[in-house]
TrEMBL record:
Keywords: Chaperone, Transit peptide. This is ATPase. It holds the Pfam family ATP12. InterPro entries: ATP12_ATP_synth-F1-assembly, ATP12_ATP_synth-F1-assembly_N, ATP12_ortho_dom_sf. Belongs to the ATP12 family. It comes from Aurantimonas manganoxydans (strain ATCC BAA-1229 / DSM 21871 / SI85-9A1).
Length: 240
Protein backbone atom coordinates (compact mmCIF):
# COMPACT_ATOMS: atom_id res chain seq x y z
CA UNK A 1 0.00 0.00 0.00
CA UNK A 2 1.42 3.39 -0.95
CA UNK A 3 1.69 6.16 1.59
CA UNK A 4 -0.83 8.30 -0.29
CA UNK A 5 -3.36 5.45 -0.46
CA UNK A 6 -2.90 4.64 3.23
CA UNK A 7 -3.46 8.30 4.10
CA UNK A 8 -6.59 8.43 1.92
CA UNK A 9 -8.09 5.50 3.84
CA UNK A 10 -7.81 7.30 7.17
CA UNK A 11 -11.08 8.83 8.39
CA UNK A 12 -11.69 12.44 7.48
CA UNK A 13 -11.71 15.05 10.20
CA UNK A 14 -15.40 15.71 10.92
CA UNK A 15 -15.24 18.32 13.68
CA UNK A 16 -14.16 21.94 14.13
CA UNK A 17 -13.81 22.50 17.87
CA UNK A 18 -12.12 20.41 20.57
CA UNK A 19 -12.95 21.15 24.20
CA UNK A 20 -12.79 19.54 27.64
CA UNK A 21 -15.65 18.93 30.04
CA UNK A 22 -15.58 17.64 33.64
CA UNK A 23 -17.36 14.31 34.24
CA UNK A 24 -17.89 11.95 37.15
CA UNK A 25 -14.81 10.03 35.93
CA UNK A 26 -12.56 13.03 35.38
CA UNK A 27 -12.47 14.88 32.08
CA UNK A 28 -14.03 14.12 28.71
CA UNK A 29 -12.82 15.37 25.34
CA UNK A 30 -15.60 16.88 23.25
CA UNK A 31 -15.62 17.24 19.47
CA UNK A 32 -18.10 19.99 18.57
CA UNK A 33 -19.71 19.34 21.93
CA UNK A 34 -19.98 15.56 21.56
CA UNK A 35 -17.83 13.29 23.76
CA UNK A 36 -15.14 11.18 22.14
CA UNK A 37 -15.62 7.43 22.46
CA UNK A 38 -13.10 4.63 22.26
CA UNK A 39 -13.11 2.26 19.24
CA UNK A 40 -15.24 -0.07 21.39
CA UNK A 41 -17.76 2.77 21.95
CA UNK A 42 -16.92 3.39 25.58
CA UNK A 43 -16.81 6.99 26.81
CA UNK A 44 -13.25 8.28 26.73
CA UNK A 45 -12.76 9.88 30.15
CA UNK A 46 -9.43 10.61 31.82
CA UNK A 47 -9.12 11.29 35.57
CA UNK A 48 -6.12 13.60 35.20
CA UNK A 49 -6.73 17.01 33.65
CA UNK A 50 -3.21 17.25 32.20
CA UNK A 51 -3.60 13.92 30.40
CA UNK A 52 -7.01 14.99 29.09
CA UNK A 53 -5.43 18.19 27.78
CA UNK A 54 -2.88 16.11 25.84
CA UNK A 55 -5.67 13.98 24.35
CA UNK A 56 -7.52 17.14 23.33
CA UNK A 57 -4.36 18.60 21.80
CA UNK A 58 -3.88 15.44 19.73
CA UNK A 59 -7.40 15.68 18.34
CA UNK A 60 -6.97 19.38 17.74
CA UNK A 61 -3.74 18.81 15.80
CA UNK A 62 -5.37 16.51 13.23
CA UNK A 63 -5.63 17.94 9.75
CA UNK A 64 -7.74 16.70 6.86
CA UNK A 65 -7.45 13.09 8.03
CA UNK A 66 -7.38 11.59 11.53
CA UNK A 67 -4.19 9.59 11.94
CA UNK A 68 -4.04 7.47 15.14
CA UNK A 69 -0.29 7.04 14.64
CA UNK A 70 0.11 10.69 15.63
CA UNK A 71 -2.00 10.33 18.80
CA UNK A 72 0.00 8.34 21.38
CA UNK A 73 -1.96 9.56 24.41
CA UNK A 74 -5.30 8.81 22.79
CA UNK A 75 -4.12 5.30 21.91
CA UNK A 76 -2.92 4.61 25.44
CA UNK A 77 -6.07 5.98 27.06
CA UNK A 78 -8.24 3.91 24.70
CA UNK A 79 -6.32 0.82 25.79
CA UNK A 80 -6.82 1.64 29.47
CA UNK A 81 -10.54 2.33 29.15
CA UNK A 82 -11.26 -0.76 27.05
CA UNK A 83 -8.82 -3.38 28.32
CA UNK A 84 -7.39 -2.41 31.72
CA UNK A 85 -9.78 -0.24 33.71
CA UNK A 86 -12.11 -3.10 34.65
CA UNK A 87 -9.25 -5.20 36.07
CA UNK A 88 -5.69 -3.80 36.11
CA UNK A 89 -4.25 -6.75 38.07
CA UNK A 90 -3.29 -8.95 35.05
CA UNK A 91 -1.36 -6.07 33.49
CA UNK A 92 0.32 -5.29 36.81
CA UNK A 93 1.25 -8.95 37.18
CA UNK A 94 2.73 -8.97 33.69
CA UNK A 95 4.70 -5.83 34.53
CA UNK A 96 6.06 -7.49 37.67
CA UNK A 97 7.63 -10.27 35.62
CA UNK A 98 9.95 -7.81 33.89
CA UNK A 99 11.98 -7.44 37.08
CA UNK A 100 13.44 -10.91 36.48
CA UNK A 101 15.28 -9.72 33.33
CA UNK A 102 15.69 -6.00 33.93
CA UNK A 103 17.99 -4.08 31.57
CA UNK A 104 20.03 -2.71 34.46
CA UNK A 105 21.24 -6.17 35.50
CA UNK A 106 23.05 -6.95 32.21
CA UNK A 107 26.37 -5.17 31.89
CA UNK A 108 29.05 -4.77 29.26
CA UNK A 109 32.50 -6.20 29.96
CA UNK A 110 34.27 -3.88 27.55
CA UNK A 111 35.14 -1.21 26.53
CA UNK A 112 35.99 0.44 29.82
CA UNK A 113 34.28 3.73 28.99
CA UNK A 114 30.97 1.96 28.29
CA UNK A 115 31.33 -0.09 31.48
CA UNK A 116 31.93 3.13 33.41
CA UNK A 117 28.95 4.85 31.79
CA UNK A 118 26.63 2.00 32.71
CA UNK A 119 27.90 2.09 36.27
CA UNK A 120 27.46 5.87 36.47
CA UNK A 121 23.88 5.87 35.16
CA UNK A 122 22.54 2.51 36.32
CA UNK A 123 24.10 1.88 39.73
CA UNK A 124 22.30 4.80 41.45
CA UNK A 125 18.95 3.27 40.42
CA UNK A 126 19.96 -0.05 42.00
CA UNK A 127 21.13 1.82 45.10
CA UNK A 128 17.73 3.54 45.30
CA UNK A 129 15.93 0.18 45.01
CA UNK A 130 18.09 -1.25 47.81
CA UNK A 131 17.57 1.72 50.10
CA UNK A 132 13.92 2.32 49.25
CA UNK A 133 12.42 -1.16 49.34
CA UNK A 134 15.25 -3.47 50.38
CA UNK A 135 15.87 -5.16 47.02
CA UNK A 136 19.39 -6.35 46.21
CA UNK A 137 19.77 -7.53 42.63
CA UNK A 138 22.50 -9.59 40.98
CA UNK A 139 24.42 -8.26 37.99
CA UNK A 140 25.97 -10.23 35.16
CA UNK A 141 28.25 -9.56 32.22
CA UNK A 142 26.71 -10.13 28.81
CA UNK A 143 23.22 -11.39 28.03
CA UNK A 144 23.10 -14.80 29.71
CA UNK A 145 20.18 -14.96 32.13
CA UNK A 146 20.94 -14.42 35.80
CA UNK A 147 18.33 -15.61 38.29
CA UNK A 148 17.45 -12.91 40.80
CA UNK A 149 17.06 -13.64 44.52
CA UNK A 150 13.42 -14.49 45.36
CA UNK A 151 13.47 -11.85 48.10
CA UNK A 152 14.47 -9.14 45.62
CA UNK A 153 11.71 -10.15 43.22
CA UNK A 154 9.18 -10.23 46.06
CA UNK A 155 10.27 -6.79 47.27
CA UNK A 156 9.62 -5.28 43.84
CA UNK A 157 6.23 -6.99 43.54
CA UNK A 158 5.25 -5.74 46.98
CA UNK A 159 6.15 -2.20 46.00
CA UNK A 160 4.20 -2.57 42.76
CA UNK A 161 1.15 -3.93 44.60
CA UNK A 162 0.52 -0.45 45.98
CA UNK A 163 -0.22 0.86 42.48
CA UNK A 164 -3.79 0.03 41.49
CA UNK A 165 -4.82 3.02 39.37
CA UNK A 166 -5.35 1.47 35.90
CA UNK A 167 -3.95 4.53 34.12
CA UNK A 168 -0.77 4.41 36.18
CA UNK A 169 -0.45 0.65 35.74
CA UNK A 170 -0.77 1.05 31.97
CA UNK A 171 1.70 3.92 31.92
CA UNK A 172 4.23 1.93 33.94
CA UNK A 173 3.80 -1.06 31.65
CA UNK A 174 4.36 1.13 28.61
CA UNK A 175 7.44 2.73 30.16
CA UNK A 176 8.81 -0.71 31.00
CA UNK A 177 8.35 -2.14 27.53
CA UNK A 178 9.87 0.98 25.98
CA UNK A 179 12.97 0.87 28.18
CA UNK A 180 13.37 -2.80 29.07
CA UNK A 181 13.55 -1.83 32.72
CA UNK A 182 10.82 -2.20 35.33
CA UNK A 183 13.08 -0.43 37.82
CA UNK A 184 13.34 2.64 35.60
CA UNK A 185 9.56 2.63 35.18
CA UNK A 186 9.08 2.47 38.96
CA UNK A 187 11.58 5.28 39.48
CA UNK A 188 9.59 7.34 36.97
CA UNK A 189 6.29 6.52 38.68
CA UNK A 190 7.66 7.49 42.10
CA UNK A 191 9.21 10.74 40.87
CA UNK A 192 12.79 9.63 41.42
CA UNK A 193 13.68 10.21 37.77
CA UNK A 194 12.22 12.40 35.06
CA UNK A 195 11.19 10.99 31.68
CA UNK A 196 14.37 12.48 30.20
CA UNK A 197 16.51 10.82 32.88
CA UNK A 198 14.84 7.46 32.30
CA UNK A 199 15.24 7.75 28.54
CA UNK A 200 18.94 8.55 28.87
CA UNK A 201 19.52 5.52 31.09
CA UNK A 202 17.53 3.23 28.84
CA UNK A 203 19.68 4.11 25.83
CA UNK A 204 23.20 3.92 27.22
CA UNK A 205 24.19 1.10 24.86
CA UNK A 206 22.40 2.56 21.85
CA UNK A 207 23.90 6.00 22.40
CA UNK A 208 27.34 4.44 22.76
CA UNK A 209 26.97 2.76 19.37
CA UNK A 210 25.76 5.99 17.80
CA UNK A 211 28.83 7.77 19.12
CA UNK A 212 31.05 5.14 17.53
CA UNK A 213 29.28 4.52 14.23
CA UNK A 214 26.82 7.34 13.67
CA UNK A 215 23.02 7.45 13.67
CA UNK A 216 20.68 5.68 11.26
CA UNK A 217 17.82 7.87 10.00
CA UNK A 218 15.17 5.16 10.21
CA UNK A 219 16.29 4.10 13.66
CA UNK A 220 16.26 7.74 14.79
CA UNK A 221 12.70 8.15 13.50
CA UNK A 222 11.56 5.03 15.36
CA UNK A 223 13.26 6.25 18.52
CA UNK A 224 11.45 9.60 18.26
CA UNK A 225 8.09 7.84 18.07
CA UNK A 226 8.98 5.74 21.09
CA UNK A 227 10.06 8.88 22.96
CA UNK A 228 6.63 10.38 22.33
CA UNK A 229 5.09 7.25 23.86
CA UNK A 230 7.39 7.63 26.86
CA UNK A 231 6.31 11.22 27.32
CA UNK A 232 2.61 10.34 27.43
CA UNK A 233 3.34 7.58 29.95
CA UNK A 234 5.10 10.15 32.11
CA UNK A 235 2.06 12.44 31.90
CA UNK A 236 -0.24 9.66 33.12
CA UNK A 237 2.19 9.05 35.98
CA UNK A 238 2.14 12.74 36.88
CA UNK A 239 5.82 13.05 36.02
CA UNK A 240 6.59 15.06 32.90
Amino acid sequence: MTQDKAKAELPKRFYSEVTLAPTDDGFAVLLDGRPVKTPGRRPLAVPMQRAAEVVAAEWGAQRERIDPATMPMTRLVNTVVEAIADDPIPVRDDLARYIETDLLFYRAGTPERLVARQQELWDPVLDWARDSFGARYLLTEGVMHVAQPPAAIAAFKERLAGIDDPFKVAAMHQATTLTGSALLALALAEGQLSAEDVWLRAHVDEDWNIEQWGADDEASARRELRWQEMQVAAVLLGNE
